[in-house]
């Protein structure tokens, strides 16, 4: 037991040899310290009650098995530390009239955050049936991790939360995202020492190099070292304190240390550390805002070292619990069936002296509430955690100012994302005063042809600059860092606190944040069902440098599967768009940037591509989501087409239109319909997605029984999955990316994957009944071109002239 508790037994402020000095003694009076301790004990009591009790919340009768939940779920180990932080945040918020938000990183710290929300009254304000009395306390206890209740972790249902606590690693990047462009906001972020071992959290320490003391708020990290994960010690908790101090200072922080297991000593040290941290933040901001100080500051942070499961059972069945990994979840697991455990639980609950904390009606006493702020200053009531309350419409300029002229389809080329970059420049300029739009990406803004935004703002940067640097600015609103995790987390925190943004990324590497977007989608799906959660701006992805034009970077950069990942998620939340040209990209982006509560994925190329539609045609096409391009086909309107050539994505669209031209020239009697799909969810049945096409409409466009040759941007089996219920699915043949990639020419990429115009024309000949015999010579000629292509690129290193110089001839 002594080894497990060694890190936590210093209660006198003394420091270990060669360790940094802890925070000094606080000026708290005994009355103030007692009030803080009362609030903390009340929160601990409520946390334990949520894990164990379903009735008898005030222990007005001896605890009996029927008072205990049949399934014990929840996490006790982190809760006392979270309660301590919440208690002391209350004090500084109230004393200094601070606007504050807290991001609770430890995974399943739900009991603590819910307890504090109930104590301050914000929980009852949000859920009036969970009143701040004995009846409400019983409901608070019963609903926790109970069917029909609330999760064991911090979640959308939790007032004051912007952070899904079910997955570790993202707390600090969310906190910084919340602080950007909120100059008056203090964002405290509690980081569990288990979470601190994750890759995203390790990278997140560098976020302070992007925090502008003039225009942004402040982030106060609280690294909570309770020593253990589920079953193992944590790395940072076992480092020598000098090594830990060097690490944190190397990250650019000034650590303040609080440690111990004597409550009153810890209260005084924590109050002092909070005061010193807030004072230091004020000094930094004042120096930058009024003194013109441009040096990158060392921001304060707190290292809180307390026992895991503090104030809980010290031993259970002869084994140490408090201060060990055994306190992580439910320290007493056999309470219903083991009388000894039941007696130990009752003694544990009564050790908080609940009769001092709650009156006879179960209401918190004045002493408990002495430190609690009022109104929207309460952490559970802050509008920053319900960002839709702060959200303003984004001033997107008229698309006519950026649209490209299209006199004839397929004759002029533009770089679609460069055209979009001009639109984003205007958005940046229009939001310069209000500062509520940011563009994030992993070092790819210029590479992705969006660099027009630098005419309106620079790249956020607080570190050292050199004469050779370009576009770096302390107040910049373009955020580039070579970590997709940071980009995702910053943007999530930014959106959830009432702002707008766009994430630009190479398509193949969007997979890095698969798990993060999972959590955000879950958050949005749940929050849409909570009437008190106001809609927030959508999370918008622009995936470019995509699979078909990564011919120069090779196989490692070729993966279109992020779309598959997204389309597995909640239909009410996810949208996927594949605009085929510049004007459709403008129309889709305009819609996505104005939307609320969605995850919009836009896949568009940055290389020169043909313009197919005028702006008006693009708007109508995007509104439909799927459209017949009569100008590209040869169908006879007096009868059904013989074949449908469908496409989704810019390169598949080019190959499909070119294939239609080949068929027009070589098989003129064939009736060909060309269909372009912008909104991938249109392929789903209407019963499966709000954008899904009714069966009658789908059959009218794709026919019920004619061959459909579908050229798709990504993995072909996705199209089959989306359309498998459709009547004509048996006649659907899909071409797409099938993991055939390398460093080669652009056209060779489509040939390698059988997505090229010649292969598509051959598919038509193979699948239209009777055509194979009549058009055998045409098919042979198409195969010969593919053979000639292989020889040509190996000799010349470029694509065939008839491919490279192709234009639509009408």
UniProtKB/TrEMBL annotation:
Q: Which residues form a coiled coil?
A: none
Cite the residue spans of the region called Disordered. Answer: 1-27
Per the database record, which ranges form the Xylulose 5-phosphate/Fructose 6-phosphate phosphoketolase C-terminal domain?
Answer: 606-808
Top-tier EC class:
lyase
- Extract the InterPro entries matched here: Phosphoketolase (IPR023962), THDP-binding (IPR029061), Transketo_C/PFOR_II (IPR009014), Xul5P/Fru6P_PKetolase (IPR005593), Xul5P/Fru6P_PKetolase_C (IPR018969), Xul5P/Fru6P_PKetolase_CS (IPR019790), Xul5P/Fru6P_PKetolase_N (IPR018970), Xul5P/Fru6P_PKetolase_ThDP_BS (IPR019789)
Q: Which residues form the Xylulose 5-phosphate/Fructose 6-phosphate phosphoketolase N-terminal domain?
A: 29-389
Q: From which domain of life does this come?
A: Bacteria
Q: What is its EC number?
A: 4.1.2.-
Keyword Lyase in annotation:
yes
Question: Which segments show compositional bias classed as Basic and acidic residues?
Answer: 1-15
Q: Which UniProt keywords apply?
A: Lyase, Thiamine pyrophosphate
Q: Which cofactor does it need?
A: thiamine diphosphate
Q: Which NCBIfam families match?
A: PRK05261.1-2, PRK05261.1-4, PRK05261.1-6
HAMAP family on file: Phosphoketolase (MF_01403)
Family, similarity comment: Belongs to the XFP family.
Protein name (record)? Probable phosphoketolase
Organism source for this protein? Streptomyces yanii
């Amino acid at each position: 037991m002594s080894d497990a508790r060694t890190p936590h037994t210093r209660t006198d402020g003394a420091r270990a040899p060669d360790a940094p000095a802890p925070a000094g003694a606080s000026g708290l009076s005994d009355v103030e310290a007692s009030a803080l301790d009362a609030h903390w004990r009340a929160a601990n009591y409520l946390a334990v009650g949520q894990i164990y009790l379903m009735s008898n919340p005030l222990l007005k009768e001896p605890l009996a098995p029927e008072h205990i939940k049949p399934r014990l779920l929840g996490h006790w180990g982190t809760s006392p530390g979270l309660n301590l932080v919440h208690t002391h945040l209350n004090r500084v918020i109230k004393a200094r009239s601070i606007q504050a938000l807290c991001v609770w990183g430890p995974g399943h710290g739900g009991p603590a955050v819910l307890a504090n929300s109930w104590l301050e009254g914000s929980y009852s304000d949000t859920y009036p049936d969970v009143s701040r009395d004995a009846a409400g306390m019983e409901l608070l206890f019963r609903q926790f991790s109970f069917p029909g209740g609330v999760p064991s972790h911090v979640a959308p249902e939790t007032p004051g939360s912007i952070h899904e606590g079910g997955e570790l690693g993202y707390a600090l990047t969310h906190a910084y995202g919340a602080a950007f462009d909120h100059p008056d906001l203090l964002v405290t972020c509690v980081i569990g020492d288990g979470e601190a071992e994750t890759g995203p959290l390790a990278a997140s320490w560098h976020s302070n190099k992007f925090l502008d003391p003039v225009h942004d708020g402040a982030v106060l990290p609280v690294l909570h070292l309770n020593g253990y994960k589920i079953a193992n010690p944590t790395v940072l908790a076992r480092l020598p304190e000098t090594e830990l101090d060097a690490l944190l200072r190397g990250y650019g922080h000034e650590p303040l240390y609080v440690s111990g297991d004597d409550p009153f000593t810890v209260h005084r040290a924590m109050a002092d550390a909070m005061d010193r941290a807030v004072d230091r933040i004020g000094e930094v901001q004042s120096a930058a805002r009024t003194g013109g100080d441009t040096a990158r500051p060392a921001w304060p942070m707190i290292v809180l070292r307390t026992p895991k499961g503090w104030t809980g059972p010290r031993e259970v069945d002869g084994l140490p619990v408090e201060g060990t990994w055994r306190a992580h979840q439910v320290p007493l697991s056999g309470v219903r069936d083991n009388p000894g455990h039941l007696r130990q639980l009752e003694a544990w609950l009564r050790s908080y002296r609940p009769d001092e904390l709650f009156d006879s009606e179960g209401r918190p006493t004045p002493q408990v509430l002495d430190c609690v702020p009022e109104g929207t200053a309460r952490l559970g009531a802050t509008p920053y955690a319900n960002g839709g309350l702060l959200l303003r419409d984004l001033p997107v300029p008229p698309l006519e100012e950026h649209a490209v002229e299209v006199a004839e389809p397929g004759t002029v080329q533009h770089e679609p994302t460069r055209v979009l970059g001009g639109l984003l420049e205007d958005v940046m300029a229009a939001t310069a005063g209000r500062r509520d739009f940011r563009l994030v990406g992993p070092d790819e803004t210029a590479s992705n042809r969006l660099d027009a935004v630098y005419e309106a703002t620079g790249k956020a940067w607080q570190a050292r600059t050199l004469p050779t640097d370009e576009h770096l600015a302390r107040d910049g609103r373009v955020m580039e860092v070579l970590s997709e995790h940071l980009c995702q987390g910053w943007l999530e925190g930014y959106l959830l606190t009432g702002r707008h943004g766009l994430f630009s990324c190479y398509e193949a590497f969007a997979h890095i944040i698969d798990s993060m977007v999972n959590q955000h989608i879950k958050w949005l799906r749940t929050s849409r069902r909570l009437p008190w959660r106001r809609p927030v701006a959508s999370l918008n992805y622009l995936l470019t440098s995509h699979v078909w034009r990564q011919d120069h970077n090779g196989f490692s950069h070729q993966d279109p599967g992020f779309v598959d990942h997204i389309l597995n998620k909640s239909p009410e939340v996810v949208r996927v768009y594949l605009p085929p040209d510049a004007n459709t990209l403008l129309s889709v982006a305009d819609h996505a940037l104005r939307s609320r509560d969605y995850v919009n994925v836009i896949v568009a190329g940055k290389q020169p591509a043909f313009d197919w539609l005028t702006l008006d045609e693009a708007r109508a096409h995007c509104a439909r989501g799927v459209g017949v391009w009569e100008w590209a086909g040869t169908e006879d309107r007096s009868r059904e087409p013989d074949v449908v050539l469908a496409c989704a994505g810019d390169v598949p669209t080019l190959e499909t239109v070119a294939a239609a031209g080949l068929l027009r020239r070589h098989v003129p009697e064939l009736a060909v319909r060309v269909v372009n799909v912008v909104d991938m969810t249109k392929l789903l049945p209407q019963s499966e997605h709000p954008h899904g096409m009714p069966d009658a409409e789908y059959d009218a466009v794709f026919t019920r029984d004619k061959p459909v040759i579908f050229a798709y941007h990504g993995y072909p089996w996705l199209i089959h999955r989306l359309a498998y219920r459709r009547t004509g699915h048996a006649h659907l043949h899909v071409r797409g990316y099938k993991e055939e990639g390398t460093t080669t020419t652009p056209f060779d990429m489509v040939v390698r994957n059988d997505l090229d115009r010649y292969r598509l024309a051959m598919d038509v000949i193979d699948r239209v009944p009777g055509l194979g015999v009549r058009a055998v010579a045409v098919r042979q000629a198409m195969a010969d071109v593919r053979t000639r292509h292989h020889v040509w690129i190996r000799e010349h290193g470029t694509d065939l002239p008839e491919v490279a110089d192709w234009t639509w001839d009408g």
